[in-house]
Amino acid sequence: METPIVKVENLSHRYNIQWAIRDINFEITRNGVYGLLGSNGAGKSTTMNIMCGVLKPTEGNVYINDISLQDHPIAAKSQIGFLPQQAPLYMDMTVNEYLTHCARMRHIPPKNISEAVRRVMTYCDITHFEKRVIRNLSGGYQQRVGIAQAIVHNPSVVIFDEPTNGLDPNQIIEVRHLIQEIARDKTVILSTHILREVQSICNYIYMIEQGTLVFSGTIEKFYNYIEPNSLIISLISAPPMEELRTIPGVTSVEEIGGTRYRLRFSERQDITTRIAETSVARGWRLNELRLEKSSLDSIFAELSRYKQS
Ligand SMILES: Nc1ncnc2c1ncn2[C@@H]1O[C@H](COP(=O)(O)OP(=O)(O)OP(=O)(O)O)[C@@H](O)[C@H]1O
Fold first, then answer.
1. Span 6-225: which CATH code?
2. Does any ligand 1 atom lie closer than 6 A to the CB of residue 46?
3. Which of 153, 215, 237, 264 lies at a C-alpha separation of 20 to 30 Å from 17?
């Protein structure tokens, strides 16, 4: 059997009396970008801090390439890179000084430090700023330096906590691109509360809500859950609501003002065609029909229900 790169086993954590996460389990066996998605306060940072060895779990354990983080923290941590929500930068150092310092902290042998620093600066495209003081870099470049320190010791697992938080749209695109590059030969786990972030860069999703894992699966499987299950129609000659309920597949009808209705349905397939055809056949004079997008909140609610059933 394949040895998992990351194994998270029965992870629970309690701050004082309140549980922040409860019984989280998952295994990662392949490189790629894994998204830990959840709303604010869901338990993402707690999970990530434990995985990086920054926080000791109340219960459970994490294994990196079969090395127990609890029993062999130094060996396990040598295979992990971490960029916390606030990048741990020394603002008054130059980029090169800072990365050299990080390489030393990561126990890279002195003779290899210069090469390791050069390699990550090239990788993160910051070599031209190596003599700049970090404070004088833009937010996007500071984040690149933060990413560089996370991979300077060439770890097999890299963990990013909300890596695009606070960046402008161009910087977000560049940082996402860099993360995807890193994932070519490493396992990248990132946390985010932005659905679009997960959709654009993750191969696999773990969704955490109120401290429990409510979904884990591929992005394709995830799409099945975020597909809309309601649509808005507007009819010039609307029939009584009971008649709208007789359209095959429609489960409920709600009047939302004027000539507009929200229809919920169980089966997405052909629903729009069925509504259009029924409207023509019965002379309802359809002049608007659009699927409603699921909000992140409704997805969380849906997935929590799915987990409980
Ligand atoms: N140091 C702490 N002391 C007490 N409670 C905490 C502490 N850190 C987090 N919590 C609580 O634990 C729960 C999970 O928090 P956590 O920071 O892990 O969530 P998150 O998903 O990362 O949220 P965010 O996106 O806002 O950072 C929340 O209810 C939070 O208030």
1. 3.40.50.300
2. yes
3. 215
